[in-house]
Amino acid sequence: MSIGNSPEDERPFEDPSEEAPFSIGRALKQARITAGLTVDDVSSATRVRIAIVHAIESDDFAACGGDVYARGHIRTLARAVQLDPAPLIERYDDTHGGRPAPTPAAPLFEAERIRPERRGPNWTAAMVAAIVAVVGFVGFTAFTGDDDGSKEQVAEGATPATGKTASPTTKTDKPVDEKPEPSDSAIAAAPQDKVTVQVSAADGRSWVAAKDHNGRLLFDGLLKQGQSKTFQDSEKINLVLGDAGAIDLYVNGKKLDDDFQPGAVERLTYTKGDPKVG
After folding, report:
1. CA dihedral 45, 29, 26, 101 (to 10 degrees)
2. 112, 117, 37, 123: which is closest to 77 by C-alpha?
3. What's the pTM value of the predicted model, to 2 decimals?
4. CA of 83: how far to CAs of 27, 29, 78, 96, 171, in Å?
5. Which of 215, 211, 196, 177 is closest to 256 using CA atoms?
């Protein structure tokens, strides 16, 4: 049995001391339990390994592999449980030496002032400028002569010669904000004796985990914007959406009019009798 599958058995941490120091791990664990999520749910939605999630909730950041990775894990876990990451990152910096100070730039400028160089005239640049001026004058003279001839030809009513005229082409651009929609044939092909769920990342990217009625993992990964996945089972499909607001759902050939908020983590179940949220 997984060590992170029973949020109901976990209890919010209660510190008997009213002056207990602020704990990043306790804050993340409390927010996860309040959201009704297990450690497995958070790990699936964020791709942070279960062992690292447990370590961070215990204020042990050694497994993160360094300060940069630790800050990234804290920020990712905070967003998954709907918690503002800024105070947690600030607390981490206070307790781990803070961010490295930037290198002062003043000594670099001082070094340049110590050794001023005396430069003579740049004769190469002067010669190049003179050549460019001569070429430009010759070109301008030739262009002016051709322009006068063209004006005379037009004044006399002659039709100027033209080359081959390219036929206009019509390019149809697909709107950037157009959401992916399943084809009519795909909707009509949804079998009646099974549950079919299509997950489309219409408004952004989202982590998606899907399991069948036996708990077998069908998919666990990131859907980029414009991508979609279809899952099918004889009884039910269980979903975990890392960013439900970016997802469009089609259950048994019908689109669901959901009101998921951006960044919300949703756990859903669908059966053959749906669309309805399980």
Report:
1. 10
2. 37
3. 0.37
4. 9, 11, 5, 21, 46
5. 196
* Model pLDDT for residues 228-249, shown as the tens digit of each residue: 999 999 999 998 988 888 899 8
What's the token pair of residue 271?
């059966």
**Virtual torsion, Cα 81, 86, 91, 96, nearest 10 deg:** 100
Main-chain phi, psi angles of 183, to 5 degrees: -70, 160
Token pair 């439900």: residue: 244
Whole-angstrom distance, CA of residue 180 vs CA of residue 274: 22
**Residue 271 in 3-state DSSP?**
strand
Cβ(142)–Cβ(150) below 8 Å: no
The tokens describing 34, both together, are 């309040």
Quick: pLDDT tens for 9-40: 455 554 444 455 789 999 999 999 999 999 99
Using an 8 Å Cβ cutoff, are 240 and 194 in contact?
A: no
Structure tokens at 142: 């030739």
